Every structure is written in C-alpha cells, then in structure tokens.
Amino acid sequence: MRMMIDVEMHYQFAMPNTVTLVIEAAETAGQTVNRAELDLGDAQVTRIAGDMDLGSRLWVQVPGDEMRLSYRAEVEVTRPDLPLETLRAAPLHELTTEAAPFIRPSRYCLSDKFVAFVARRFGHLQGGAKVLAIRDWIEAELDYVPGSSDADTHVLETFAARQGVCRDYAHLFCAMVRAAQIPARMVAAYGPCVTPPDFHALAEVWLEGRWHPVDPTGMCRPDALALIAVGRDAYDIAFMESQAPATLVRQEVSVTEIPG
Q: Which residue of 131, 171, 227, 260 has the fewest CB atoms within a 10 Å radius of its CB?
C-alpha cells in the first residue's frame, strides 16, 4: 500500500519556545518513505534518533510566539498482515535486550495490576492466540468515545469506565499483554483507516523474535499503517511536547491511500 500523509499544525506561545516533535513517518522494516517535505518556517530544527532507534525526534527552537508546520510524505508499506494465532511467545529467559524492557509496568500501563485478571480470563491460551483474545476483549468491551479521557488517564480508569480513545485502548492492551509476560510496546502511526483522522496510537507485540503491530481499536491492519515512533506508553510517543504553554490554533492530519 502507498499512502500520502499531510499534516498542518499552528500553535501560539507566550514566548519563544523549544518544542519536541515526533511526527515524521519512520524509515524502518516494512515501510519506505519515498519522499517527504517538512516546513517549519524560521524555526531551528535539530533531529535525533527516536526511542529504540525507530524514527526521529525533532528539537524545534521557535524564535517567535507561534509555530506553523507543514509535513507531507509519501510512504510505501510492504509489511504483511500475518496471522498471529499460531506464533509462539518467548519464555522470559529467551527475551532479548530489545524486548525485555516491555514486560515491565510503565507510567500509564500498570501491568502489575492486571496479572490476576489476565491469568483468570486468558490463562488457558498461549502466545499469539492469547494476544488476539486480549485484543478482541478490549475491542468488544470498550466504547470509542472522543473526549472521554485526557493526558492523565491511566489504564485502571479506562478499565473501570470501559471507554476511551486510541491511546486508552493501546494502554490497556499493552498492560494486559505485559501482565501475561509477553512484551508489548506503544506505537504512534498514520493510517488511512483512522476515524477521525489524527495521530493514531496502537501497539506492537514480541512474538517469535520480532515485533508485530496490533490495533486494539480494530481500525487498522498492519499492512495499512505507517509507523512514526515506539515507546513504553503515550509519554514516549507524544507528537508534541512544549516547554512553554501552547495554544492550539489549527491542526489537521490527512492520510489517503494512493491507488495503483
């Protein structure tokens, strides 16, 4: 699949500001960035590698009181949509340095609170079959309700309320999968299937020695996603962090599939 990504952002600040941005589609296995254009006006940009060496993190020094950003990219996705149900989960002693950190609790993914529930509900399953059962349970039990959560909402609140947006679905999924001692990490991505169009949060699970994307909202298949960043939870993959208070003027994300 080929997709065109268009992002427009306009923010105002009370003073000159330094902003961290994580918005560029990553050049990584399963996807190729054919072309990309980033316009930040007179801001000074420093680019460093993203977490886990996937994608990029931008330090943006904004000299005035506003930031206008335009990002446009064409991405070709060659990642297959593999069936997960037959894939094996590694025992703890076989986990690699890459995967091991993602069986631990994190700021928003309190996986230690779900060990008993996951064992009782999904303990009869193994590996990829358990991962899919957790995904299906979350998709069935939660209602997607824009505005029902905020940046401080964690998985215990989501589990109790049974509603949220993509970040809440992904947090709960990662927490439950980690509670089953299977590594799971948070993912930011673009997809033409995301409704409403926005930066999308999902997850990746470690099965048979590699990461596999899983979308607990059920919106997107792995072969229809352009990954941006990965991390422990939403704290690591936030599309923007501002050192000074920021006022949103306009933000639009558009992702369209290119025919042919």
A: 260
Report which of 168, 227, 214 is spatially closest to residue 29, judged by C-alpha positions: 227
What architecture is the 2-78+239-258 domain classified under in CATH?
Sandwich (2.60)
In the chain, where are the structural domains located? 2-78+239-258, 92-235
Q: Evaluate the CA torsion angle 180, 183, 188, 192 in order and state its sign.
A: negative
Q: Is 200 helix (H, G, I), strand (E, B) or coil?
A: strand
- Nearest to 171, CA basis, from 207, 139, 205, 216: 216
Report whether pLDDT(260) > 90. no
Q: CA angle at residue 152 from 215 to 107, to 5 degrees? A: 70
Phi and psi at 59, nearest 5°, equal -95, 120
Share above pLDDT 70 across residues of the chain, in percent, rounded to a whole number: 100
Beta bridge partners of 227: 189
Cα 62 from Cα 75, distance rounded (Å): 28
| Cis status, amide bond into 196, omega within 30 of 0 | yes
End-to-end CA distance of the chain: 9
Domain 92-235: which topology?
C8orf32 fold (3.10.620)
